[in-house]
């Protein structure tokens, strides 16, 4: 097997492929400081080889905050010993990737390794476990993990705003810089082992949200997936984060972004729409965001559990012994179980209050029902954790003092660490499991409970159960946790409503045995088929699909720092060279050029849309050349265009996307499409007015040939929904009218059928041919969807009779984005420089050789 790790990064940068020898190579030395490898042994400077170099294996690089390893020191010599952490999700997901996929892990160790031991430890982990450790200095790690991750991201993603220093802490720029620095160290570690053209990279969770930018910056075509294991908050919460745009753009450098639930994905998409102006589409069941020519796919699938691991623990003799012990301890009583981390979001205190309420409202349960609350150690630290612990202890003490009796405590709080088999034993004997977190990304406790309640023959015998009998279980879950939507048989509760939770607990106690069996069977069928292997396999499949067109696109990066992004465009799409077009311009005699106005001759988003002196001067210079026919094609009405360009006597104008046309200032306006009447406006306008009244920020633009409903200044989500409704409404009421109803960028437009900018381009080319001046030069520049019709016409004309067989055709869009055009220019300033160069060429030609033939230039206004 060939391990395709590159250690000579200069080869990658130059595009040179490594050569694999037949002899076995050593693993490259793993760098223990941030940065790229600069020195490696000669024999390993290209790759890591194997005894069988002709066989290749697919490889996945899994990146997480912590490696799936356990570490301890050898008592004899003090050396570090490592073993797999069977509880780690990163290790468990390997089962779903297949035996033919090699897996390499990149992450931190839980233990701090002395600097003089780091090289040896790194080499051992790479050779033995295929793990690449990222050694983060303690001070930096504290700022990164306990600082930015736990004080800023984690509370915010769980809907806690830093309204005071006690609530998560105010934003600290130094903690953010530490977060970015650690993500960069992780990127450097990935670079040491990645083969960018072949390997897949799967990044996990909120600790590494800007890592995709660093990887994409190094390799534009890296195959990169990201999965967020926490909630993603609504836009109203997320937008309070000072670095909101940087994180969103970093995530969008992934090919596939995964979420546990649709709610989390919906919030992410809403943030992208509101803060970055991006829209998403759903095609054949897949959701995708178009981002600079790349389609970023969205995956929605909750993670599962490793059933094999649970079943192996269920089979252990110590598990059986613990089950017997607990069964005897709680004999004759109904056990309700809670398993939660001791943090502010798990709702332990609310659950205890609900138990208290249950005993108050249903005193018959006193002495009969026990709530066992297992409190795992909190992953974070701080005053809030201490407050949660103190409140929990105080509540338990109050409940037990009030309702307890000799030999009976209504609540058993276990806050000392339990072995896994001990926790499994509690699952087995519990009649009901309560998960009442106020906010949690996924929470796999209910899944573990279901599998453990299914049990096995040995445990059935121990508990005196009939092995052939149907198993039973009851679940009470918060509606604010990620697993809730997948557990349709559970009793869903609002954990903040203590009375409702108490009633749910009572319902779980009195439900019939048959109902418990049906609910358990439904849950077990889902959990057993949607395990962690299913989740990992599904994610890998979608990642392969999302990366399928990498080689069919030409990619390059733009932007600095965390604003970096990759442009992915058609292989034939390239930047228009001024020198190239000026050369073609000088060689030709009959020319036609089509230009857009907004974002072409005027800056994007400018409040003053009237043409400036510079643009008008360039247009007039082009029009003075007798070989040029200059046209401006616009969506504006003809009255506006007439006023704006009254000083351009030879400039041709086309208004309302080609409905009206005027060859020059001395000619009359004429219509390109003959329409019998505009009676349809009387139907469409009242409908638009209705939506305008109900959509704050929307307006109606009335043109001679069209009606446009604009929602640019409305709420993005509401405006989009209203636009969809308006589109359906108008299509319904105008079904028998000779008009087309189309949606565009923040607009819904009704216009006569057949009217588009392509009609103008076709009309001008045909007119020039009829006059015996077959165009041998065509330039068309536009920036939006309506200009694509012009691009299509002039590209199609290359194969027809409207153009000279040797015509030079330049279809050019503004900005690097998917288009029918073959060229692009970056912005308005580049376009004006190019047009000025053409005008200068005309002036020079006029001074030397008087022009004798006509040329056509068409300029689009919008």
UniProtKB/TrEMBL annotation:
InterPro entries: Glyco_trans_20 (IPR001830), HAD-like_sf (IPR036412), HAD-SF_hydro_IIB (IPR006379), HAD_sf (IPR023214), Trehalose_PPase (IPR003337). It holds the Pfam family Trehalose_PPase. Coiled coil: none annotated. SUPFAM superfamilies: HAD-like, UDP-Glycosyltransferase/glycogen phosphorylase. In the C-terminal section; belongs to the trehalose phosphatase family. In the N-terminal section; belongs to the glycosyltransferase 20 family. This is Uncharacterized protein.
């Amino acid at each position: 097997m060939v391990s395709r790790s590159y250690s000579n990064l200069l080869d990658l940068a130059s595009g040179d492929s490594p050569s694999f020898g037949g002899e076995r190579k050593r693993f490259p030395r793993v760098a223990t400081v941030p940065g790229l490898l600069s020195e490696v042994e000669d024999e390993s400077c290209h790759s890591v080889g194997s005894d069988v170099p002709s066989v290749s294996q697919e490889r996945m690089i899994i990146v997480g905050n912590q490696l799936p390893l356990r570490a301890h020191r050898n008592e004899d010599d003090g050396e570090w010993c490592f073993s797999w952490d069977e509880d780690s999700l990163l290790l468990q997901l390997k089962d779903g990737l297949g035996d033919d996929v090699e897996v390499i892990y990149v992450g931190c160790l839980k233990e701090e390794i002395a600097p003089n031991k780091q090289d040896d430890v790194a080499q051992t982990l790479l050779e033995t476990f295929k793990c690449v450790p990222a050694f983060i200095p303690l001070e930096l790690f504290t700022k990164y993990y306990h600082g930015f991750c736990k004080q800023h991201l984690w509370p915010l993603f769980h809907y806690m705003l830093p309204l005071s220093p006690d609530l998560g802490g105010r934003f600290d720029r130094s903690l953010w810089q530490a977060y970015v620095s650690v993500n960069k160290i992780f990127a450097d570690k990935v670079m040491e082992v990645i083969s960018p053209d072949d390997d897949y990279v799967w990044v996990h969770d909120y600790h590494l949200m800007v890592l995709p930018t660093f990887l994409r910056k190094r390799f534009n075509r890296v195959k990169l997936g990201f999965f967020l294991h926490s909630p993603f908050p609504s836009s109203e919460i997320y937008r309070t984060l000072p670095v909101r745009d940087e994180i969103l753009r970093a995530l969008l450098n992934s090919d596939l972004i995964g979420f546990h639930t649709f709610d989390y994905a919906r919030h992410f998409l809403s943030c992208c729409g509101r803060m970055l102006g991006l829209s998403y589409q759903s095609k054949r069941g897949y959701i995708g965001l178009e981002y600079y020519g790349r389609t970023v796919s969205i995956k929605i699938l909750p993670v599962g559990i490793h059933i094999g691991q649970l079943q192996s623990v269920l089979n252990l003799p110590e598990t059986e012994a613990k089950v017997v012990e607990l069964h005897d301890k709680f004999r004759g009583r109904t056990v309700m179980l809670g398993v939660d981390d001791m943090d502010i979001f798990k709702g332990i205190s609310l659950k205890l209050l609900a138990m208290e309420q249950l005993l108050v409202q249903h005193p018959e349960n006193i002495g009969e029902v026990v709530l066992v609350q297992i409190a795992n150690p909190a992953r974070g630290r701080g005053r809030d954790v201490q407050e949660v612990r103190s409140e929990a202890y105080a509540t338990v003490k109050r409940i037990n003092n009030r309702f307890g009796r000799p030999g009976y405590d209504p609540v058993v709080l276990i806050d000392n660490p339990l072995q896994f088999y001990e926790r499994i034993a509690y699952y087995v004997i519990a009649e009901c499991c309560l998960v009442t977190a106020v906010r949690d990304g996924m929470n796999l406790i209910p899944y573990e409970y279901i599998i453990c309640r299914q049990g096995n023959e040995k445990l059935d015998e121990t508990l005196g159960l009939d092995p052939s009998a149907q198993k039973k279980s009851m679940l009470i879950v918060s509606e604010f946790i990620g697993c809730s939507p997948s557990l349709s048989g559970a009793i869903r509760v609002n954990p903040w409503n203590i009375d409702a939770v108490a009633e749910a607990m009572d319902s779980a106690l009195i439900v019939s045995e048959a109902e418990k069996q049906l609910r358990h069977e439904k849950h077990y069928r889902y959990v057993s088929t949607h395990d962690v292997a299913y989740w990992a396999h599904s994610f890998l499949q979608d990642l392969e699909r999302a990366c399928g067109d990498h080689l069919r696109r030409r990619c390059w990066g733009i932007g600095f720092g965390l604003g970096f992004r990759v442009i992915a465009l058609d292989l034939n799409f390239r930047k228009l060279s001024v020198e190239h077009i000026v050369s073609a311009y000088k060689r030709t005699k009959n020319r036609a050029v089509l230009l857009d106005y907004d974002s072409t001759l005027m800056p994007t988003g400018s409040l003053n849309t009237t043409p400036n002196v510079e643009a008008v001067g360039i247009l007039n210079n082009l029009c003075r050349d007798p070989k040029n026919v200059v046209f401006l094609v616009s969506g504006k009405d003809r009255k506006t265009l007439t006023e704006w360009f009254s000083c351009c006597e030879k400039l041709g104008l086309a208004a309302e996307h080609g409905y009206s046309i005027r060859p020059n200032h001395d000619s009359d306006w004429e219509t390109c499409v003959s329409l019998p009447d505009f009676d349809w406006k009387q139907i469409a306008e009242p409908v638009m007015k209705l939506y305008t009244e109900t959509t704050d920020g929307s307006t109606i633009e009335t043109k001679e040939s069209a009606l446009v409903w604009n929602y640019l200044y409305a709420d993005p989500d509401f405006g989009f929904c209203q636009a969809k409704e308006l589109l359906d409404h108008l299509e319904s009421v105008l079904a028998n009218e000779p008009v087309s109803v189309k949606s565009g960028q923040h607009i819904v437009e009704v216009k006569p059928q057949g009217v588009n900018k392509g009609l103008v381009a076709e009309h001008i080319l045909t007119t020039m041919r009829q006059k015996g001046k077959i165009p041998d030069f065509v330039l068309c520049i536009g920036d939006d969807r309506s200009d694509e019709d012009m691009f299509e016409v002039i590209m199609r004309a290359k194969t027809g009779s409207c153009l000279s067989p040797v015509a030079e055709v330049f279809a050019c869009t503004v900005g690097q984005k998917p288009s029918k055009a073959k060229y692009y220019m970056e912005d308005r300033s580049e376009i004006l420089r190019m047009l000025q160069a053409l005008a200068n060429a005309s002036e020079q030609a006029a001074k030397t050789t008087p022009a004798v033939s006509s040329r056509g230039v068409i300029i689009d206004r919008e």
